[in-house]
From TrEMBL:
Protein name (record): Replication restart protein PriA
Domain Helicase ATP-binding: 294-462
Lineage of producing organism: Bacteria, Pseudomonadati, Bacteroidota, Bacteroidia, Bacteroidales
Cofactor(s) listed: Zn(2+)
UniProt binding sites for Zn(2+) 1: C525, C528, C565, C568
Organism: Butyricimonas faecalis
Keyword Electron transport: no
């Protein structure tokens, strides 16, 4: 008898053993998707992890119920990669496959659910249900029968499983046994000639139709139309509009063998609309860099390319892609955000046309499943451009992995598990596939830069902009001064105002940047601008308005807001940062002629709107673009001559040991949007804390110096890249229970790990959806075995869960948190 160990796509540990019925013995291999029942006959689509002949002891195995068609199976190497993610990020394998597989490949989502007869009696009081459960009940009452995927769609949430399962357990909703098919190809019906008819034949047919008026008319119209437009077939919807909508007539003509209706499978994937052209020839400097990269690949798998903004890194990628395709291999090109794919996909398609496939989580699930199948089939896209989740796609012969803007923290998935970093996962994927890896950035992450300096990665630099364009001029402007003199025009200093005026009068464009993160979480002196930091941790403290206290994220220390500034002894601590709406109003007031648009979250979540906005700005239909992080990086606009950073202090004030690194990156990136072609551009950076060293360092434009200075402190405080971090987050509805559990866990861990344990401390947002959260941070110095550490941490958490203090407390791991 053959047995299969199966990964169930749930947050359950390890594997479950099923027997393989004889009929499937030949179709099941490692990586096959199979339908199995698990816990009370609920069905899930699992992934076969291993096959063997050892009957499990102690329980009777259930058989595999069904094997999913081949197009979706995971290759052994793909599975190996997913298991690596599971281990490295301390996430059960089922949760990784859950994240990796499109919903429609996981059968249980299509299991139909409905309210159980007599549910009212089972549910005495609605307040027994959680809010989520009540919401789900609500949609069922409205809609009757539904599947999990629909519930998720209606509630616009991805994590209804827990609540749905709770409702199942309470037997308020039940499972309908019929299960829909997995992946339904999208089809269209077309009408066409059954075969080719000569004119004589047609005359004959028409003669025979004299008494069937409707058919006669339909056929005449169709003959006429297909002649006129030289078409042999039409989608049925169009046929109905243009030729006639008599169902009976169409049916009649089909029965006579004149016409036929066929079903065609159509693709949900985007097709390229770009005209394919030539690859740009590289400049001399770019040519040299390309040679150096290829040279490094003789010895190293991974190369870091540090190139200033607008140096033409993308052009170099394009040449490397071309080379890789020539060798018959595939390319994965990662970008940190969907928003950035819009411009890059255009550039790639201009060269590679339909060879480029785009993948991101904003795609309809069915399109994702189609992409998955295509990549598994005989004609996969040679180039995949996508965000972090594209590392989950199957690859058959990966030759090159490009991680653009590798320093971006949005590569990290924060919620839900697996909390992986797309860059690091891509590096691993590349290594496991024997591919070469290229990390690109103007401001590399300290982690990658250190790997480059130590020789672990190859290192190549491009220090000039393409076309000898000068780097923009940076102007730091002291807002405090102008505020005091009451010379601000709304949120513009006179300097920014004058520069904007000049640029707009010349018919050029302006980008205004406002930081989204961190506002109102830090306090700043209204006189000297200094930001309050924790004495022990070198990070700014978080301000909690409701308690009027300051709190350190790292060590958990608390303090009251000092009455006067600790630095100048005179000013008072305040917090203020205007939002993008406010900036828009000010632009309208002070530059009434300017055409202005805001690029913020609701624009970005709508792809069409976003594309339209980019096009408008590109084609000069807009003069001023206001935005947050989205406008700061990767975008390539020719006519932008001025970038205004509205309030740079909100970047450095973020309570994180990486705040300064991020602020530096952000300022360099956003400056990089100015003056990319032709005349030199300018950047006006409005600040309060003029003396802040980040500004001094940005002004010098010396990344290496910046790294050297900051990395010394990182080393001293034992932060990455000189250590690895693992964050343990505990959650519970009761604050006291939670705190006790966290204290106990930290105490136990300290017994062995000593000073490597920091906290417990409250996170930025300490209560989410009724659950309180608290975090413990583990710092592991270089040389400490990470895998042993992880085993130890897990073990301690498991032990805690079994004791009264830890009962019901949920534990989440975050490896390499950002
Ligand atoms: N060899 C080349 N031939 C023609 N145009 C080029 C060449 N290299 C770069 N350019 C143009 O210069 C501009 C900047 O190049 P690109 O966007 O590739 O820079 P980048 O280094 O990726 O910048 P960023 O880091 O800001 O994203 C683009 O408009 C690009 O088309
Ligand atoms: Zn602290």
């Amino acid at each position: 008898m053959l047995y299969a160990d199966v990964i169930i796509p749930l947050g359950v540990e390890s594997f479950f053993t099923y027997s393989v019925p004889e009929e499937y013995e030949h179709s099941v291999t490692v990586g096959t998707l199979v339908v199995v029942s698990f816990v009370k006959n609920k069905r899930y689509t699992g992934v076969v992890y291993a096959l063997h002949t050892n009957p499990p002891v102690g329980f009777e195995t259930k058989p595999i119920e069904r094997v999913i068609e081949e197009g979706f199976a995971l290759s052994a190497s793909h599975l190996k990669f997913l298991l690596w993610l599971s281990e490295y990020y301390m996430t059960p394998p089922g949760e990784v496959t859950r994240a990796a597989l499109p919903v429609s490949m996981r059968l249980e989502s299509y299991t139909s659910l409905s309210l159980v007869n007599g549910w009212e009696e089972k549910l005495a009081d609605e307040s027994e249900l959680s809010r989520e459960e009540r919401e789900i009940m609500g949609v069922f009452r409205e809609r009757g029968e539904m599947c999990m995927a629909e519930v998720e769609k209606l509630l616009k949430r991805k994590d209804v499983y827990v609540a749905v399962r709770a409702l199942l357990e309470k037997e308020i909703i039940g499972i309908k046994e019929s299960v829909d098919d997995l992946f339904k190809p999208k089809v269209e019906r077309w009408v066409r000639w059954k075969r080719k008819f000569s004119s004589e034949e047609l005359d004959g047919i028409l003669d025979g139709l004299k008494r069937a008026k409707a058919q006669y008319k339909m056929l005449c119209d169709w003959v006429y139309y297909s002649d006129e437009h030289h078409v042999e077939c039409l989608p049925r919807t169009e046929f109905v509009q243009k030729i006639g909508n008599s169902v009976a007539a169409l049916k009649g003509l089909c029965e006579r063998g004149v016409l036929e209706v066929i079903v065609r499978e159509v693709s949900r994937l985007e097709v390229s609309e770009e005209e394919v052209g030539e690859v740009h020839a590289l400049s001399e400097a770019q040519e040299k860099v390309l040679g150096d990269i290829l040279g490094c690949y003789w010895e190293k798998d991974c190369v870091l390319l540090q190139g200033v903004t607008s140096s033409g890194k993308t052009e170099i990628y394009i040449h490397l892609i071309q080379e890789t395709l020539r060798q018959g291999k595939q390319v994965l090109y990662l970008l940190p955000e969907i928003a950035l794919t819009v411009q890059i996909v255009k550039r790639l398609r201009r060269v590679f046309g339909d060879q480029v496939g785009v993948y991101h989580s904003g795609m309809a699930d069915s399109a994702r499943a189609e992409m998955w199948r295509k990549q598994n089939g005989t004609n996969p896209y040679p180039v995949v451009l996508g965000v972090r989740s594209s590392v989950f796609l199957p690859y058959q012969r990966l030759g090159l992995v490009i991680v653009d803007e590798e320093h971006e923290s949005s590569y990290k998935q924060k919620e839900p598990a697996p909390r992986y970093n797309g860059r690091d996962a891509a590096i691993m994927l590349g290594k496991m596939s024997g591919a070469k890896i290229l990390l690109g950035s103007a401001t590399p992450s300290f982690e990658s830069y250190q790997n480059a300096l130590s020789g672990k990665y190859g290192f190549v630099q491009l220090t000039t902009r393409y076309g000898e364009v000068m780097m923009p001029e940076l102007l730091f402007v002291d807002m405090k001064e102008y505020r005091r003199k009451k010379m601000m025009k709304g949120c513009f200093t006179p300097v920014l105002y004058e520069e904007m005026k000049r640029v707009l009068e010349n018919g050029m464009q302006v980008i205004l940047f406002q930081n989204r993160r961190g506002y109102s979480t830090y306090l700043q002196c209204d006189r000297c601008g200094s930001i309050l930091k924790c004495k022990h941790c070198d990070v700014s403290m978080t301000y909690y308005r409701y308690r009027n206290t300051l709190n350190c994220h790292y060590c958990g220390s608390l303090r009251a807001v000092p009455a006067v500034c600790q630095d100048c002894g005179q000013g008072h601590y305040v917090n203020r940062t205007p939002g993008t709406e406010r900036i828009e109003e000010d632009v309208k007031q002070y530059f009434p002629e300017a055409r202005v648009a805001r690029m913020d979250l609701d624009v970005i979540s709508n792809k069409a709107k976003f594309r339209a906005l980019i096009d408008d700005f590109e084609s000069g239909n807009l003069d001023v673009l206001i935005g947050t992080q989205m406008v700061s990086k990767g975008l390539d606009f020719e006519r932008v001559k001025l970038v205004g950073v509205m309030d740079a202090d909100s970047l450095v004030g973020f309570p994180d040991f990486r705040a300064e690194e991020r602020a530096y990156d952000m300022l360099m990136q956003v400056s990089g949007r100015s003056g990319r072609k032709g005349e030199r551009g300018k950047v006006v950076i409005q600040v309060v804390d003029r003396q802040n060293r980040v500004y001094q360092l940005v002004g010098k434009e010396d990344y290496h110096g910046f790294y050297t200075l900051l990395s010394r402190e990182r080393e001293m405080f034992n932060y990455p890249p000189f250590s690895r971090l693992i964050q343990i987050e505990l959650r519970h509805v009761d604050e006291v229970v939670l705190r006790n559990a966290a204290n106990e866990l930290a105490r136990q861990m300290r017994e062995r790990l000593e000073r490597r344990v920091c906290g417990p401390a409250e996170p930025d947002v300490s209560r989410v959806r009724k659950m309180y959260r608290i975090q413990i941070l583990i710092k592991a110095e270089q040389g400490l075995s990470l895998s042993k550490l992880k085993i130890f941490l897990k073990q301690k958490c498991d032990e805690l869960a079994k004791t009264p203090v830890g009962k019901g407390v949920r534990v989440y791991f975050d490896v390499d948190p950002l």
